[in-house]
Amino acid sequence: MEVGKSVPTQPGSRKEAPPPEPPVADVAHWEGLEQTDEFRQLVRSRLRFVLPATVFFLVYYFLLPIGNGLAPDLMKTKVIGEVNVAYLFALSQFVMAWTLAYLYIRKANRVFDPLAAKLRARAAAGKDGGAR
Amino acid sequence: MTITLALFLIVVAVTLGITAWAARRARTTVQFWAAGRQIKGWQNGLAIAGDYMSAASFLGIAGLIAFNGYDGFMYSVGWLVAYLTVLFLIAEPMRNTGKYTMADVLAYRMSPVPVRSAAAFATVAVSASYMMAQMIGAGSLIKILIPTLDTNLKPYFNWTVFGTHLDPSITMVGLLMMIYVIAGGMVATTWVQIIKAILLMSGAVLLSFLVMLHFGFNFGSFFNAVAGVKDSATKLNFTQPGILYPYGKKQVFGIDLALLDNISLGMALILGTAGLPHILMRFFTVPNAKAARQSVAWAMGLIGSFYIMTTFLGFGAATLVGKAHICASNSNLAAPRLAEFLGGQFFGTTGAEFLLAFISAVAFATILAVVAGLTLAAAGAFSHDFYVNVIRTHLLHGQVSEREQVTVARITAGLVGLLSIWLAARVGATANAAALVAGVAFVIASAANLPAILFTLFWKRFNTWGAVASLVGGTVVTIWLVAIGPGWTLPANAHPAFPLQNVGIVSIPIGFALAIIGTYLGELVKADKLAEVKFHEIDVRAQTGLGAEPTPVPA
């Protein structure tokens, strides 16, 4: 793109450039999309994964400092040689984080992305669920 | 010493070469701020890792573990788990609704002038404290690792500005980072971060491999050696928790002070990352939400592997080198000293010198990459949010051309660079605050930025008053609590007005509460009806990517 031109113009057209937003960009349009079955399904399925997963990782993470503070003898228990519960618990946090990330990404690719694509197609076709 | 200097010069030459290449690709605003949104998912993952793993995590955590054993590892755990917050709640909605900065997302629903000004204030507070820690660290590191560089630089960088004598090493680092950002914008910054991530990972793998080689790849005997290291004050060995956080000493409101401090630290670590402007900015450089998700996956793989290796580096330094030989006062030298020891053991004197030089060069590249990212974030807040969108567009009702936007961006990047050089020399010379400021950045990010972003995306009633209350209030409360807490002054205040060093456990709930109270107050005076109406739009956009900023077709 050329430096210094703030609005790119169509070559050969004398008309003004069209506004960047699609013509349906108004509140009713967005509310209509919000009320479609696909959108509700998308939000619901996302929430069904993200909410429990977030609660789980917060609880699992804070158990580590709380355990170290309140149950030091348990955490110092040796498991294999000098390797103790505290170190293994800390390592398990890495496994937990990677596993949850893997599960989220798999779910996003299989469930969230197709639903979002459907909604984008619906908006492009000018349909919005009939709210208008 | 000559090897160190040679490796430093190679790092400088390669990064400047990249900048020269990138300068041709940093001409429009979308190129300057978002690398033309053409960074691939895996590349952005490497760049996030490079932007995130600062000298504080490489040298700092290795040092904390080397001096305090297990408790130092708590940072490593928190800094990885933090990315689940980013992945689940932030990365994709950010890419779907944002343009160049965090404030773009907020300004979708809120009145642009107050919310952009408040977001610029919080962004600058986070980036400035983070940057200060990096620059001061850089200065002291260069002085110890290559003292000749500092003395050689002195005749050329011997400046006193407003009564503060500038530190030659800090000035050199600052000038380099200014060149990357001013000339190469986000493109150069991204590639400097990618190279740094590769260097850092190879350094950590090499050192971990040599540590395990020393112990004959026997994990049992490695841990036996670690358990043989004892802390003199607490009588605990280094595999046990409780050295850095001595539980059962003091209580506040009937709860163990060390436990509170540790939980408080954890809150800032796992919530703060999702509010760091320089990390959020990285999600605008990829083509779409799917690539944003992929980049978090790559970043988590790299960051997690690296932080697991910090136990080899830290415990390795504790067992093989020992606190006395690292440096009595500066735990940051644990990794370099470990490299020197391992090099000497396996490859003789030249090996020792080479490995020390290599690790020093990695640390140097690390600092350069992180400060470049921070400069870009702070410049974005000043120039894109405050100058272009608040002053020119809304207060003066002007049209701002591409050329003017990019020029102003370059000028602000330069000013941010100069200011940070001066501030780092000023703060670094006087206060104990230097060590604290990096932690403060995470707390401000989680108390001020995170509530504003989360509520903008997910809470229908949230409005401008709530956003400004959390952005300004969260920042001010955090800084105030740190200032009246222990550790701000040297020697540490024995009877501080606020008992905790990590203030997150108090200031993060306050930040969220301010967002909620502000929202209800705003509703009472009926200040902001647009925010609720516009929620439908941001809701659909964030979830579906409809109308997201496109990737411009390359000319």
Key structural traits:
heterodimer; A: 132 residues; mainly alpha; two-stranded antiparallel ribbon; disordered N terminus; B: 555 residues; Sodium/glucose cotransporter; 20 helices; globular
Please describe what this structure looks like.
Chain A is mainly alpha-helical and 132 residues long. Chain A is built from four helices and two strands; from the N terminus they run αααββα. Chain A has one domain. In chain A, β1 and β2 form a beta hairpin. Chain A is elongated, with a radius of gyration of 26 Å. In chain B, β1 and β2 form a beta hairpin. Chain B is globular and about 70 Å long. Chain B has a single domain, classed as Sodium/glucose cotransporter (Up-down Bundle). Chain B contains 20 helices and four strands. Chain B has 555 residues and is mainly α. The chains are: A mainly alpha (132), B mainly alpha (555). At the A-B interface, α1, α2, β2 and α4 of A face α5, α10, α11, α13 and α16 of B.
Write a brief caption for the model.
The complex is a heterodimer of chains A (132) and B (555). Chain A has 132 residues and is mainly α.
Question: What's the helix and strand layout?
Answer:
The complex is a heterodimer of chains A (132) and B (555).
Chain A: H1 27-34, H2 37-70, H3 72-75, E1 78-80, E2 83-84, H4 85-124
Antiparallel strand pairs in A: 1-2
Helix pairs in contact in A: 2-4
Chain B: H1 2-23, H2 29-34, H3 41-52, H4 55-68, H5 73-97, H6 102-107, H7 112-145, H8 147-153, E1 160-161, E2 164-165, H9 168-214, H10 219-227, E3 251-252, E4 255-256, H11 257-272, H12 277-280, H13 289-321, H14 323-326, H15 334-395, H16 402-430, H17 433-458, H18 464-484, H19 504-524, H20 530-544
Antiparallel strand pairs in B: 1-2, 3-4
Helix pairs in contact in B: 1-9, 1-15, 3-9, 3-13, 4-13, 4-15, 5-11, 5-13, 5-20, 7-8, 7-9, 7-15, 7-16, 7-17, 7-18, 9-13, 9-15, 9-16, 11-17, 11-19, 13-15, 15-16, 17-18, 17-19, 18-19
